[in-house]
């Protein structure tokens, strides 16, 4: 099987295990290419891609743009802050105006959950969800699982704990879907106030104690506290959160097992993660960044073949 079962990447829950394996295999090939002196291939030379970001982004936006340029695509970058959205233009009108310029694919980040699904039902272009509110962030989950597979040889049976603000995190939900589909054992850890009500429906473990979680896992994926999405205070202070759930080198050295640290970024150094951990040999954070380009190249290439 060398084609995806879907026409869009809207979320991990719409993929199957064969899709994920195909993306990983394709990313393997692209990773070899981006580590060569000549990093560009003509795979998407006749494809035009619009990056529509209705929320601020640094890593994801840059990663997609680099991936698109490595594939020789024509790239249009759109930012809602300097657009007619500020004048009241609807999402559909904005996108249709862009599509009238003969755009083939749309990479979109939007604050509203389900925005990419809505778009896929109303326009004739391949859609890649680069994050929709607190819902999903599929390429981040794919690059995270790919990074685990690269380090350990496989994802199946690995014990992975996701620590932090699960309630507001699209990264957490996509990771849970992806890791479980690939056979990993998944747990979450953090204050109960930062856990979603549907936690039991996901079939994962919950740890309230950071030491218990770290002693259980092989891989810890650390999330930042998303204060910008919190309408009320869900814990006393960042300082108290850091004292209870922050990870530093002393804590890692006290564990009976050696674990791998991951983080989707941006890191709030000194809150959820200390600098000596983020920059240590335990960390896969920069590997995640590199793998993000290869994974996004793979997704864009495979979706372009669905046209």
What does this structure look like?
The protein has 307 residues and is α/β, with parallel strands linked by helices. It has eleven helices and nine strands. The chain folds into two domains: 141 residues, Aspartate/ornithine carbamoyltransferase (Rossmann fold), CATH 3.40.50; 146 residues, Rossmann fold, CATH 3.40.50.1370. The strands form two sheets. Strands 7-6-5-8-9 form a five-stranded parallel β-sheet. A four-stranded parallel β-sheet has the order 2-1-3-4. β5, α6 and β6 form a beta-alpha-beta unit. α1 crosses α11, α5 packs across α6 and α5 crosses α11. The mean pLDDT is 91.
What is the makeup of the main sheet?
A: 5 strands, parallel
CATH-assigned fold name of the largest domain: Rossmann fold
Q: How would you state the average pLDDT, rounded?
A: 91
Helix-strand topology string: HEHEHEHEHEHEEHEHHEHH
Q: What is the level 1 CATH name of the largest domain?
A: Alpha Beta
Number of helices: 11
Low-confidence stretches: none
CATH homologous group name of the largest domain = Aspartate/ornithine carbamoyltransferase
N- to C-terminal distance: 17 Å
Describe how the helices and strands are arranged.
Blueprint: H1 17-34, E1 48-53, H2 59-70, E2 74-79, H3 91-99, E3 105-110, H4 115-120, E4 126-132, H5 138-152, E5 159-163, H6 170-181, E6 185-189, E7 205-207, H7 210-216, E8 219-222, H8 238-245, H9 249-253, E9 260-262, H10 275-278, H11 285-304
Parallel strand pairs: 1-2, 1-3, 3-4, 5-6, 5-8, 6-7, 8-9
């Amino acid at each position: 099987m060398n084609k995806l079962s879907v026409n869009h990447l809207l979320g991990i829950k719409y993929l199957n295990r064969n899709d994920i394996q195909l993306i990983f295999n394709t990313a393997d090939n692209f990773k070899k290419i981006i580590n060569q002196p000549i990093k560009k291939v003509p795979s998407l030379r006749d494809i035009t891609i619009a990056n529509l970001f209705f929320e601020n982004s640094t890593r994801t936006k840059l990663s997609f743009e680099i991936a698109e340029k490595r594939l020789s695509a024509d790239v249009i970058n759109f930012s809602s802050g300097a657009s007619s959205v500020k004048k009241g233009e609807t999402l559909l009108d904005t996108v249709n105006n862009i599509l009238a310029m003969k755009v083939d694919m749309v990479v979109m980040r939007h604050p509203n959950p389900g925005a990419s699904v809505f778009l896929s039902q109303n326009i004739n272009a391949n859609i890649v969800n680069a994050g929709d509110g607190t819902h999903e962030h599929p390429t981040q989950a794919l690059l995270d699982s790919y990074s685990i597979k690269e380090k350990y040889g496989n994802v199946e049976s690995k014990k992975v704990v996701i620590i932090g603000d699960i309630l507001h995190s699209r990264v957490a939900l996509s990771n849970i879907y992806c890791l479980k589909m690939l056979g990993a054992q998944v747990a979450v850890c953090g204050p109960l106030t930062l856990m979603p009500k549907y936690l039991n429906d996901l079939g994962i473990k919950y740890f309230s104690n950071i030491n218990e979680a770290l002693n259980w896992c092989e891989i810890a994926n650390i999330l930042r506290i998303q204060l910008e999405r919190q309408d009320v205070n869900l814990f006393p202070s960042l300082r108290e959160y850091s004292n209870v759930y922050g990870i530093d080198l002393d804590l890692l050295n006290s564990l009976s097992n050696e674990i791998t640290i991951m983080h989707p970024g941006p890191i709030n150094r000194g809150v959820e993660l200390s600098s000596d951990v983020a920059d240590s040999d335990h960390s896969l954070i920069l590997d995640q960044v590199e793998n993000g380009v290869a994974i996004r190249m793979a997704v864009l290439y495979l979706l372009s073949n669905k046209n």
